[in-house]
User: What shape does this take?
Amino acid sequence: MKKLIFFTFISLLFFSCSKDDELSNKRQRPNIIANKTIFMYLPWTGGNYDSGLYSAFMKNISNVEKAIVAKQSYQATRTLVLIANSASSATLFEIIYDKGECWRDTLKQYTISETNEKSLTQYLADVKHFSPTPVYSMIMGAHGTGWIPKGTKLNRSRSIGGISAAQQYNITEITNAIANNGIKLEFLCFDDCYMANVEVAYELRQATNYIIASTSEIMDYGLPYHLIYQYMAEQSPDYNAIINGFLSFYATYSAPYGSLSVIDCAYSNDIAAVLKKFNSSSATPPTADEVAGQDVFANHLFYDLGDYLKRYNAQITSIGQDTIEYSQIIKHLIPFTGKTEKLYSGFLDAPYTYNVSAYSGITISDPSVNAAAIENKNKTNWWIATHQ
Assistant: This one.
């Protein structure tokens, strides 16, 4: 019965959109002259008997349309959306603004057989085909657990994508899929939990100029696109306004919790060089017990990068070595960030709110003794660049 109800629910949600799309396909498209495309990718996050984040994704799409209508302009930016309506099917459509309203023009239907570098490479190739513009940005809405590889055994770990490893991406797969299409994104926005890691930024440094992501968990509502999408769609995104819009929304939301950062990937190599200097010194790195954790795992996975370097620097000076400058690079690396007073976690058996003792807007897993980190962190390109 649950399976039938689930299928009917999804069918009504999706095919009501499909019906509108079929009608909209008969409408004449306006003459669009754009120099930028934003690709909103919403993969399947459900299980056998639930639809995961599907209803939240539909709300996200509606909020994007509200932002476009409110602006009353196409802003020379095209918006393409790929949403999976089941584990095996998805639709790519374009949001068209014309005469004061938005409508959805279906571009392609997919039968999903895999979730990996190959499939994402094809999705991005299709976006380029249907919307050939000089500039591309991408929003990825899904579950997330930072740089942690898919398939890692971790309580309620969702990696990047759905709830099973077969529906998830590794960061390297996303990086390679972008590179396979010969593009570098203007920004990559992760509307997912725990994606504002220095490991992620370093891995994606050649794939995108900026990352928009959170150091904490993101509520199911996701980013308030009705307030911030207009700033994403500008020819030069207003990153400060995006952060302020996020904080303004969550300050009065029923679940007033969240954090959001803008990471300038141009400084990823610089921060890696700084940490390599620290690791090349004779000082002992700060331990997991000394650094401000940014999650609720019994053994933290994610620690505040600013606090880690501050304590590392104190160790260096305590043994009589020269201080290593790091604060200015962090300011460049994280030009905009903000968080609510408290943060939220659903990873525990019951919902939980918590405070963090330090916050710079980006995390690091170097000091982690969590089994998931111990098993995998020395395989990341970040670790190789800073420890070898």
Q: What stands out?
A: The two ends are 56 Å apart (CA to CA). The CA atoms of residues 33 and 209 lie 24 Å apart. Residues 2-266 form a domain with the Rossmann fold fold (CATH 3.40.50.11970).
